[in-house]
Amino acid sequence: MNEMINYCLKLLILLVGLVGKGTVFAQDKQYQVRTIAFYNCENLFDTLKDPKNRDEEWTPQGARVWTQKKYQQKLRNLARVLSQVGREENPLMPSIIGVAEVENRQVLEDLVQQPSLQRGNYGIVHFDSPDRRGIDVGLLYAKKHFVLLQSSKHTLYIYDQRQKSKNKTSKRRIYTRDQLLVSGLLEGEEMHFIVNHWPSRVGGEKLSSVNREAAAALNRKIIDSLQKINPQAKIITMGDLNDGPFNTSVKSIMQTEGDQSKVQPLGLFNPMDKMAKQGYGTLAYQDQWDIFDQLILTEAFLGNDYASWRYWKAQIFQKPFMVQSSGQYRGYPLRNTTNEPGFSDHFPVFLYVIRTW
Questions:
Q1: Calpha distance 163→336 (Å, rounded)
Q2: Rounded to whole angstroms, how far apart are CA atoms 312 and 9?
Q3: Is pLDDT above 90 for 104?
Q4: pLDDT in tens, 116-141
Q5: For 248-267, what is the mean pLDDT?
Q6: What integer pLDDT is reported at residue 357 of this predicted model?
Q7: CA distance 85 to 38
Q8: What is the pLDDT at residue 4?
Q9: Which of 87, 99, 137, 207 would you label with 241, given CA atoms 20 to 30 Å apart?
Q10: 136: alpha, beta or left? (left if phi > 0; alpha if psi -120 to 50)
Q11: Residues 6+ apart with CB under 8 A from 249
Q12: Cα–Cα distance measured from residue 314 to residue 292, given in angstroms and rounded to the nearest whole number
């Protein structure tokens, strides 16, 4: 039923059209539309050597010969993408943007000052993570639409258990990204966002899956704690999960559901579930596409009472200028090369929330 309502609403909006303030008109009702996005920025490093991190590669003297010219081009590329995300249905730039693979707060300050993003007037939420390479997650919010109330980071403790001898095991901590929780008011309504970049598949998908399952458990714990305070809490968890919608971490640990009609109270809806079944992807490896970049919502976003923010639809953002046009990796995301800064090896994802106004 919810899907039918959303489908009818979509048709109605497309027929009537959008106006310049993120508001749609349908018969005697007006609807506000806001965009929530996530983008893995793929190695958004500045050019300075940080003595605490392994960022030598991303300096003028490093293997990438990462100069100010290249850095500035990378910023322009990312800003070009983010300024266009969701514009098909909403003329406004995204109200919320979660980001991953950013080195520090300064690169985010530089990003939001790019000409194509400046009019978004974005605020920044960022904490340094213990990741060995020095890459973090962060969140950008349009100050006109979102009032920041609280933010916190949640550290993931995982260990690589190696057999030192027959009777002795060594536990070595794996330093990875924190999970970022941001709470605030989207046009006056309380909402929570969790930004993730779960542990990689280094060592193989199966051997490393336990680390992402631990990340999923931490993410679910954060969600449960918010729902314990308010069972109707509107929470969107987003990020590069390094797993697809059907991996154990997402499907079993997070307990996501791809069919809105099957989502139970306190449950989680994953719109990327259906996209994955249809063969879409946000990144490719050896010609195999997967959706590591996901946006997952609590059940409170589902329903047909549009007096408050409700989920409308989700998409992968992909434009020709973001795609490799030739060579071995034709059709892949246009990522960084040794010589040239690209966009990212991931396509961004986004969703719309909508309400009557």
A1: 37
A2: 9
A3: yes
A4: 999 999 999 999 999 999 999 999 99
A5: 98
A6: 84
A7: 10
A8: 43
A9: 87
A10: beta
A11: 198, 209, 212, 213, 215, 216, 241, 243
A12: 14
**What pLDDT shows up at residue 22?**
74
Q: Which residue has the tokens 């966009």?
A: 343
- List the structure tokens of 74: 């990378």
SS3 annotation, the chain: CHHHHHHHHHHHHHHHCECCCCEEEECCEEEEEEEEEEEEEEEECCCCCCCCCCCHHHCCCCCCCCCHHHHHHHHHHHHHHHHHCCCCCCCCCCCEEEEEEECCHHHHHHHHCCHHHHCCCEEEEECCCCCCCCCEEEEEEECCCEEEEEEEEECCCEEEEEEEECCEEEEEEECCCCEEEEEEEECCEEEEEEEEECCCCCCCHHHHHHHHHHHHHHHHHHHHHHHHHCCCCCEEEEEECCCCCCCHHHHHHCCEECCHHHCCCCCEECCHHHHHHCCCCCEEECCEEECCEEEEEEHHHCCCCCCCCEEEEEEECCCHHHECCCCCCCCCECCCCCCCCCCCCCCCEEEEEEEEC
Average pLDDT of span 59-88: 97
Alpha-carbon span 221 to 229, nearest angstrom: 13
Angle separating helix axes 105-112 and 68-84, nearest 10 degrees? 60
Write the burial class of residue 171 (CB in 10 Å: 0-12 exposed, 13-18 middle, 19+ buried): exposed
The larger pLDDT score, comparing residue 161 to residue 256, is at 256
pTM of the model: 0.92
Residue 346 has pLDDT above 90, yes or no: yes
